[in-house]
Amino acid sequence: MSNTKDKKPAAASKLDKKLFVEKRPEGDFAVRKGNSERASAVLPTQAKAIERAKELNPGASPVVERVRNTTTGKSDQWRKA
Q1: Hey, which end of the chain has fewer CB within 10 Å, N or C?
Q2: CB-based contact 27:8 (threshold 8 Å)
Q3: What letter would DSSP give residue 11?
Q4: Contact present, 65 and 23 (Cβ < 8 Å)
């Protein structure tokens, strides 16, 4: 019998592998893995943060936060870099 207690759900492990580029309140940009508490890197510009995310996870596109002020819908959205 296998012990399923130690296994993560498939959706959670997929999120853990993605890298996100988020703007911090300080004005710089953080590169974070999904479900992480700390940033893998903090860089002064979004372009440098995207570049670093691609170095950390080659072959995968990081997901980048973008904020748009719109009259309808949510303002926070994500895009692939």
Answers
A1: N
A2: no
A3: H
A4: yes
**Length of the chain measured in residues:** 81
Within-domain flag for 24: yes
Per-residue pLDDT of the chain (81 residues; tens, 9 = 90+): 555 455 545 555 566 678 999 999 999 999 999 889 899 999 999 999 999 999 999 988 899 987 666 666 665 667 777
- Between the CA atoms of 33, 37, 40 and 41, what dihedral angle is there, to the nearest 10 degrees? 120
The token pair at 22 is: 């988020």
Domain of residue 21: give its range.
14-80
In a domain, 22, yes or no: yes
- Residue 64 near residue 77 (C-beta atoms within 8 A): no
Tell whether the torsion through CA atoms of 6, 35, 46 and 76 is positive or negative: positive
Q: Is residue 4 part of a domain?
A: no
Q: How many Å apart are CA 48 and CA 41, to the nearest integer?
A: 10
